[in-house]
Write a structure and sequence with these properties.
This protein is an alpha+beta fold. It is built from ten helices and 17 strands.
Length: 321
Amino acid sequence: MSVSSWPRALFTLAAACFVGAASAGAPPVNTQAPGFYRMTLGDFEVTAVSDGTVNLQPTQLLTNTTKKKVQTALGRAFLAEPVETSVNGYLVNTGSKLVLIDAGAGSLFGPTLGKFVANLKAAGYQPEQVDEIYITHMHADHVGGLVADGKTVFPNAVVRADQHDADYWLSQKNLDAAPEDAKGFFKGAMASINPYAAASRFRPFNGDTELVPGVKAIANYGHTKGHTVYLVESKGQKLLLWGDLMHVAAVQFADPSVTIAFDTDAKAALAQRRKVFADAAKQGYWVAGAHLAFPGIGHLRRDGAGYTFVPANYSSGATAK
């Protein structure tokens, strides 16, 4: 009996069995692709680099709101607690300088983070190629990746951050006076920055400062005493890298008045967020956030009393405009 003479139903059943047998033994892989995303900005190349994700409990951390409002906002975004939250850094190749903004958590935040260097290498760069590192603020998830086993990860880089953050987080006096549950913030900053300082490669600045052509630090004090955003500009195109200006997109875009327990000065952080959101929506330049879902790059559009974040359209060839 030839195959062509089989009844159609029997042939369909046999084919299904063969397909099932071929695929049944394949286990789930349970890993993600390397975490980097590239775009062009004028003559510059910008690469978003993922350090991984960390779970946050917005109902416990967000302030100036209610638990019910937070849960409602999360539900509208099809999210539930804990919210898996990205930790992003950004590499800017100006053509003459390779500049890194924030370096991830390293070993300071647990096993779901600390992937920054592996993803940097996957993106085609090596740590020794980085010339300058600009820190938005000295919380552990932004500076921990600067060191590994007490040694500098970026052997040729100069690290820069606002003097206000340096004075606060690198102070032994402040560490000694801090509550026990806050001492880790100081210890993490010291462990991450001090090896560069010992090598004369930590150079703080004060307030608004052009650091290299096309990259400017802009004071954004509030989340920490020296919190800084960085404006990258080439050929009239702009990208504002805003660090921890906000943390939970599903809540804080719709209601920018919502603050977070990590803020050193919640009132000042709120004012800065409102100012930056309004300017970004009005002018239409690119924005990127350390805790926006990776790669965290897009635009803001005003939406009633709040805003809508419009993620960058995916590009396979570094052609985003």
